[in-house]
Amino acid sequence: MASQWEEPNDSDHPAYVALRTPRQSDAEKAKIVDVSSQDNSELSRQVPLLQLFSFADFTDKILMTLGTIGALGAGILRPSMNLLLGNVINSFGSTTGEGSSSDDFSSSVNKVARNLAIVGVAGLVAGYLQVYCWSLTASRQSKRIRSLYVNAIITKEIGWFDVNDPMQLSTRVADATVTIQDGIGSKMSDLLHFTATVVSGIVIAFVKGWELTLILMAVVPFVAASGILAKRVIIAATHQGMQAYAQAGAVAQESLSNIRTVHMFNSVQCFVDKYSHALKSATDAGIKKSFAVGWGSGLMYMMVFLMYALGFYLGAVFIARDNLDGNTCEGSSCYDGGRVFTVFFAVMQGAMALGQAGPSLQAVYSACAAAFDVFEVIKRPSLIEPTNDDQGKKLDHVSGDIDIDNVQFAYPSRPEVEVCRGYSLKIKAGEKVALVGPSGSGKSTVISLLERFYDPLDGSVKIDGEDVRSLNVKWLRQQIGLVGQEPVLFATSIMENIRHGRSGASDSEVVEAAKMANAFNFIMEFPEGFATEVGERGAQ
C-alpha cells in the first residue's frame, strides 16, 4: 500500500499532503511499448520484404541495382554454359560423320572456346558486381540502422526503459543488426542468384527438350526428399550426441567443482564410473550419427545417380527415335548428344540451385523478423525529447521556486501500484527540504518528476511558475545538480566523469565544481589526481 503523508501542524516543517495514486489511463499505457517481452504472436511478425531497405539512400539504391544485375547475370550464366558445352559435344560427334573435315571441326571448337571465354569474363564481372555491391550496401545500411537504433534507444524517455530490459536492447543491437545485414547482403544476393539459375535452367531445358525435361522434373522431388530426409536424420542424431556429451560434462563439472567433498567421501571411483557411463551414451549417439550420415549421404547419392541413369537412358531413347533405323529428323527439336547433355544438366543445376536457395530464403525471412522490433523502436518517437535544443522554453533567470500541484503518477511498469495521487508540495528558493518516508512512498519519484524523467498523469510540476513540460528538457536538466544514492562512474578519468555534468566545461571549471562539492581534497590524494582512471563503474 502507498504510504500517506499528512500535513503536520508544526510550521517549522515543510508541508506534506496525503500521497495518493491513480490508475494509469489506457491512453498512457498505449504510449509505452514493451519490445523485450512480447508474446509469440508479436515476435513472429515480420516487416515486408521491401521495408528491409527503408533506410537505403540513393547510393544504396544504385548499388542494389548493380548488384541485382550482377546476381541475375551470374545465375543465368551457369545453366547457359550448358548450351555451349552441348555444342562442344556435337562438335566432337561431327568428326565421325561423313564429309567432316578438320577445318570444320577446328572452326566449331574455336567458336565454342571463344564463347566460353566470353562467358568466363562475363561471369567475373557479374560475380564481382553481385558480391561487392550487395556487401557494400548491406554494410552501409546496417551501419545506418545500428546508428539510428542506438540513437532511438538513448533518446527514449525513462519510462520506456521500465518496460524494456536495457540488457536485451543492447544484445539486440549486436544480434538483430547482424541478422539484418546478413539478410540484405550476401543472402539476398545469393537468393537472386539461385532464383535466376532455377528459372533460366528450367527455361533452357524446356526450350531444348520439353519431353526429357518433364520426365526429369518428375524425379527431382524424390532427389530433394532424400536430401531432406538425410538432413533430418543427421540433425536428430547430432542433437542426441550433444545431449549425451552435455550430461557427461555436467558429471565432470559437478565432481571437479566439489573435489574436496568427492575425496572426503572416497567417491572418486564412483564419479569416474558415472562419467564413463555418460561417455558410453555419447559414444553410442556418435555411432548412430555416423550411421545416419553414411546412410543419408548414400541415399542422396543413389538418387542422384539414378537420375543420371534415367536421364541418359531416356536421352539415348530419344536420340535413337530421331536418328536411327532409318528415321530422319529435321529442325531444332531433334535430339542429339549435345541436346541431351544440355537438358539434363540444366535441370540438374536448376534443382541444385532450388535446394541452395532454401537457406538464403530463410536468412532473408530471419532478417525480416529481426527488423520488426528494431524498426518499431526507431519509428516510435520519444514522449520526452531530451536532445532537441529548439523544443520548449529556456528561462533567462532561474530563482528555484518549486511547486508540485495535485500530481497523479504511476510507473509504466507497475500501473497497478499507486505512487502519487493528489500529491502537492511547495519549496521556496533557498530552502533545504528533506523528503521522508518508507520505501515506495514517492521520494525518488518527486525528483524524477522534477528532472522530467517522467511526466505526471495529472497535475503539474512547476519551476518559477513554469510547468516543466513547457521547458526545454536539455536546458532544464542543466539547471539541476543531482547526486544519486549510488552514483554511476564511467570507465574514464575523474576529470571526464565530472565533465559529463556539463559538456564542454574547461578543466578549471571542473576543478572549481569539485571544490564546491567538497571533493577536491580527496581527489588530489590519488597519485594522478583528476587524471585517475576509475575503471568500469568505478571498480578500479
From TrEMBL:
Cellular compartment(s): Membrane
Q: Which GO terms describe its cellular component?
A: plasma membrane
Keywords linked to the UniProt accession: ATP-binding, Membrane, Nucleotide-binding, Repeat, Transmembrane, Transmembrane helix, Transport
GO molecular-function terms, A-Z: ABC-type transporter activity; ATP binding; ATP hydrolysis activity
Family matches, as CDD domains = ABC_6TM_Pgp_ABCB1_D1_like
**Coiled-coil residue windows:** none
Q: What sections of the protein cross the membrane?
A: 116-137, 191-207, 213-230, 298-320
Give the InterPro entries listed for this entry. ABC1_TM_dom (IPR011527), ABC1_TM_sf (IPR036640), ABC_transporter-like_ATP-bd (IPR003439), P-loop_NTPase (IPR027417), Type_1_exporter (IPR039421)
**The family this protein is said to belong to:** Belongs to the ABC transporter superfamily. ABCB family. Multidrug resistance exporter (TC 3.A.1.201) subfamily.
Q: What is this protein called?
A: ABC transmembrane type-1 domain-containing protein
